[in-house]
Write a structure and sequence with these properties.
single chain, 429 residues, alpha/beta, 23 strands, globular, binds NADPH dihydro-nicotinamide-adenine-dinucleotide phosphate
């Protein structure tokens, strides 16, 4: 889950962060006997029974599969987008709109469909004014939605308008948008002053890896049966959440859809005499096990290479993994190895996903690559001089030259490829 704050999940009156919600779900699944592998699936074969699922690290076989790979909100990709991502630019008004940073401020929504209209109406609860930026002559949204927008005195609709770029204030937060008249193709001289811009321009489902083995609609969303909203065109393959749901797209609706898919899967396995019962851990045992694992982890002597070096007292160039600006400076000037720097921030959900994944890849290069983690909240000047516009960001240096920049979370293979290329070039030189 890439959302940082989830405000509308029932049972969390104070809200909950996306990573915390995921961690709680993870522990609950483990209690019920699930085995979890954090890996990217690269291909599936639905022509075989059991089905075959391949990641970069293993091939697995399964009698039934639930696909819950979600959808990625489309972005405009304006030049300053990364810079202001989560600092005013967002793709989810419903997740982020309640942030105090937007209270009683003017905000913008891009798009003219039902999502954009819904976001604009939703944001009027918090904003002083909402500007709806529609690239065409009219809105594509349903009449009911259009009317709600047009009837609201808090929403101003700008037709024939698109966003060219954004500008920020001294604190690095979004302050204004540079707009273009799409009819004349000319820039609008006056920037639109807004504290937030929300994209409502549609979603792309994460279904590419399925390689057309399932029925999808023209936008790539999985088609599910009308009767249970979770069976797909291949018997034994079920779908849950945003990978088929174009409309609701909330953590709570996806969780409900996951539950439907799980029950359908269980029925399918039972009917086909493929069901294997897994016993739930007793709640008391589960709690004790989690506590024991935490205690063990806290008490275990840390593996030397994983201990982060922060200052001159504990810096050791023979270690692979380090943390903080002291280590970065030392390694940048003294390390003969390629240097991987990961920029993170404390509230960044995707950073929490990337850290263990990158650490596993780096373990394969223990003696040949150095690594430093920089928390941009602790070392803002380093982040600024490195030109960091969003987290997570991984930069690779060789002989003091920056040779690669990887924004966001990518597949393990992408990091491996870049690291290996640098090592091959090093040995060839
Ligand atoms: P849509 O594809 O319907 O609309 C996308 C909007 O974004 C369009 O207005 C499109 O403009 C605009 N757009 C796309 N790319 C750009 C771009 N690069 N720059 C500027 N504008 C752009 O997606 P939605 O997410 O709105 O809706 C998806 C589906 O979900 C629909 O079927 C909708 O009815 C449904 N839905 C229903 C809701 C409800 O009833 N409550 C709520 C939300 C969604 P243009 O029109 O010019 O192509």
């Amino acid at each position: 889950m890439s959302t940082t704050e989830v405000e509308n999940y029932p049972g969390f009156p104070e809200g909950v962060t996306g990573p915390e919600l995921m961690e709680r779900m993870r522990q609950q699944a483990l209690r019920w006997g699930a085995e979890l592998y954090e890996e990217d699936v690269v291909s599936v074969d639905f022509s075989k029974r059991p089905f075959e699922i391949k990641s970069e690290d293993r091939t697995m076989r399964a009698n039934a599969i639930i696909l819950a790979t979600g959808a990625t909100a489309k972005r405009l990709r304006i030049p300053s987008e990364e810079k202001f991502w989560s600092k005013g630019i967002s793709a989810c008004a419903i997740c982020d709109g309640a942030s105090p940073a937007f209270a009683q401020k003017e905000l913008a929504v891009v798009g003219g469909g039902d999502s954009a209209c819904e976001e604009a109406i939703y944001l009027t609860k918090y904003a002083s004014k909402v500007h709806l930026l529609v690239r065409g002559e009219e809105m594509r949204a349903s009449k009911a939605m259009r009317d709600r927008v047009l009837d609201s005195s808090d929403v101003i609709v700008h037709y024939n308008t698109s966003v060219e770029d954004a500008a920020g204030n001294a604190q690095g937060f979004l302050e204004s948008l540079k707009l273009v008249n799409t009819k004349t193709n000319k820039s609008i001289p006056e920037p639109l002053k807004v504290a937030g811009m929300f994209y409502g321009i549609g979603h792309t489902p994460n279904t590419k890896f399925l390689d057309s083995q399932l029925g999808t609609d023209e936008d790539g969303f999985i088609i599910v049966s009308d009767h249970d909203k979770t069976s797909t065109s291949v018997e034994g393959v079920f779908s849950a959440g945003d990978v088929h749901d174009k409309e609701w797209r909330q953590a709570i609706t996806a969780a409900g859809s996951g539950c439907q898919a799980a029950i359908s899967t269980e029925r399918y396995l039972q009917m086909n005499k493929l069901l294997k019962e897994v016993k739930m851990m007793d709640t008391k045992d589960a709690k004790e096990e989690i506590e024991a694992a935490k205690k063990k982890e806290a008490e275990a002597p840390k593996k030397k290479t994983h201990e982060p070096a922060i200052d001159a007292d504990n810096f050791d160039i023979d270690r692979q993994k380090h943390q903080g600006q002291y280590a970065l400076r030392k390694l940048y000037h003294e390390s003969p190895r390629p240097l991987v720097v990961m920029y993170t921030s404390p509230t960044c959900g995707p950073c929490k996903r990337l850290k263990p994944m990158l650490s596993t890849v780096l373990d394969e290069y223990e003696k040949s690559i150095h690594y430093v983690e920089i928390d941009i909240a602790k070392d803002p000047e380093i982040a600024e001089s490195a030109g960091i516009m969003g987290t997570p960001c991984v930069q690779v240096f060789k002989d003091k030259a920056r040779v690669a920049v990887i924004n966001g979370v990518k597949m393990k293979s992408e990091y491996r490829k870049i690291f290996s290329e640098q090592l091959i070039e090093s040995s060839a030189a």
